[in-house]
Amino acid sequence: MERIKFLIGTHKWLEDLRIQRSVFLHYTARLLAGKIKVRHYARILKRLLYFFSKMKENKYVKIGRLTKVNLYVPFFPTKAFYTACDKVTVFDEKMPAVSVLISVTSACRFNCEHCYQKYDKGKDVDIEVLVKVVRKLQDKGVAFFNLEGGEPFLVFDRLLQVCNAIDDRSEILINSTGFGMTPERLKMLRKNKNLMGVMFSLHTDSPEKMNAFMGNDEAWSSMVKGIAMCHAGNIPVMFNTCLLPESFKDGTFERILDLQKQFGGCLVQLIKPKTAGGWLHGQIEKFNAEDAAIVKEKVTRYNQAKTHIGFPFVYCMLMEEEPEMFGCTAGGTDRFYINAKGDLQPCEFLNFSFGNVATDDFDTIYYNMRTEFHTPGQCLLCDQFASEIYEKYLENGSVNLPLKPELSEQIYAGWDRGEPTRFYEKLSQL
Predict the structure, then answer these.
(1) Span 374-379, average pLDDT
(2) φ and ψ at 423, to 5 degrees?
(3) What is the DSSP string of 117-155?
(4) What Cα–Cα distance (Å) separates residue 334 from each residue in 95, 96, 144, 241?
(5) Any bridge partners for residue 201, and if so which?
(6) Is the bond preceding residue 376 a cis peptide, omega within 30 degrees?
(7) What is the C-alpha separation between 157 and 180, in angstroms, rounded?
(8) In terms of Cα–Cα distance, which of 162, 186, 180, 179 is closest to 100?
(9) What's the CA dihedral at 135, 137, 139, 142 to 10 degrees?
(10) Each residue of 276-303: b (16+ CB within 10 Å) or e?
(11) pLDDT digits (tens, 9 = 90+) for 82-101
(12) Of 43, 66, 154, 419, which is the most buried if we count CB atoms within 10 A?
């Protein structure tokens, strides 16, 4: 595994200059080649500078010549990075989504209590259908494919077919528990040079707690073996961590970060607990203003303090969702979700659907979803409307999620998505 460097302070500032110079030269070359209009050139550069200004709180991850500035922005200076940048070159219609989460299977050996797919019961969508959708999404400008299960390595042929369908215009990140992973399978996936990481779940600070939480005595050992295989295969290791408020007060957060550092992780996605799937009932502890302040103080320390330079970059969902940042990016504003059955959802944490890629025309249902989410809002819909989704789920005697399209429409038909997100409002005006 190439040496991982973390950039803060002056080193990060210098890297910003390198990125900005490269971006300037890239779009200047496209201008001179007649691929962008003269009247759009300055606006594109202003939009990109505005977007990168939102990265000021981030710790950058540098692996060899590649730099990660944000979880959902592909490594610079890959082709996929510029696919993401091309989002802001669109002026006459809604800017494209740059990221999608796709479940390639529901097969799983674990039973995590918080799983947002806990009630997504049904047959995996035909792989040929899924591959066609993936190719369409690349053509629509998606730059970042986050592939998961269940456990994707349990149906390796499906995972491999999807990865092989994604060319270097996009980056691939695979979520895994390590179960079913082998060095040979990683080598086959690594032939696609755009596989840029494997993300493991680590929500507790000990093997015993993790095995209990995930409902399998092999959870910890599977993760440890998977991490070792990724390092041996020169694949960056990342983590996702979902913690309730108490874990930021009793030292659990710090102990988990210590472990993730020891495991050689380069990035941690800190997930805010959501009322979805197994937790759709809403009976979980919520973050109040004091809790949120504690989280932000700790994340800032780990990302910016010299004393914590050796720790992974912490991508904090709670901070990214703030009104002054990106708000709610669901519904194809920046991201969306396709579950293992093929249901098109605005977000993995919003358990309703706009249709199914196997039975509906994909272009139509994708357009309908993005039209409903045309103006990005500050309201965190997964928090605000979970109770209504849960009520519909119970009232109609549903045995699985997401809600069918006709029930889903009853949720979003009259909802208030809050004030427009200032970031996207300003971005479209530049």
Answers:
(1) 93
(2) -60, -50
(3) TTT--SPPPPHHHHHHHHHHHHHTT--EEEEE-S-GGGG
(4) 9, 7, 10, 21
(5) 240
(6) no
(7) 12
(8) 162
(9) -130
(10) bbbbbeeeeeebeeebbeebeebbeebb
(11) 999 999 999 999 999 999 99
(12) 154
* Token pair recorded at residue 427: 């971005």
Q: In whole angstroms, give the CA distance from residue 315 to residue 312.
A: 9
Which amino acid, one-letter code, is at 414? G
pLDDT of 361 reads 98
> Helix or strand or coil: residue 213?
helix
The answer to whether residue 1 scores a pLDDT higher than 80 is no
Taking each helix axis from N to C end, the angle separating 156-165 and 183-190, rounded to the nearest 10 degrees, works out to 20
Query: Confidence band (pLDDT; 50, 70, 90) for 137?
Result: very high
Q: Tell me how far apart the terminal alpha carbons of the chain are, to the nearest angstrom.
A: 41
Tokens for 116? 């947002």
Q: Which residues contact 105 (CB under 8 A, 6 or more apart)?
A: 124, 149, 150, 151, 152, 154, 155, 158, 159, 340
Q: Alpha-carbon dihedral of residues 53, 54, 60, 62, nearest 10 degrees?
A: -70
pLDDT for 358-369, tens place per residue?
A: 999 999 999 999
Asked if residues 326 and 95 have their Cβ atoms less than 8 Å apart, the reply is no
Q: What is the pLDDT of residue 50?
A: 98
Strand partners, 144: 99, 171
Reading the block at residue 275, the tokens are 């009322």
Residue whose pair of structure tokens reads 């060319």 in the numeric block: 167
For the purposes of burial, counting CB atoms within 10 Å of the CB of 129, is it exposed (0-12), middle (13-18) or buried (19 or more)?
Answer: middle
Q: pLDDT category, 384, cuts 50, 70, 90?
A: confident
User: Do 320 and 247 form a contact (C-beta atoms < 8 A)?
Assistant: no
Residue 327 and residue 421 in contact, taking contact as beta carbons nearer than 8 Å = yes
b/e sequence 308-320, b meaning 16+ C-beta within 10 Å: bbebbbbbbbbbb
Identify the CA nearest to 242 among candidates 287, 196, 281. 287
Q: Which amino acid is at 38?
A: V
- With beta carbons less than 8 A apart as the criterion, state whether 277 and 401 touch: yes
Q: Whose CA is closest to 78, among 66, 63, 96?
A: 66
Please name the residue that has the structure tokens 């996207």: 424
Residue 302 has pLDDT above 90, yes or no: yes
Reported as half-sphere exposure (CB side, CA atoms, 13 A), residue 44 has a value of 25
Pairing of strands 60-63, 66-68: antiparallel
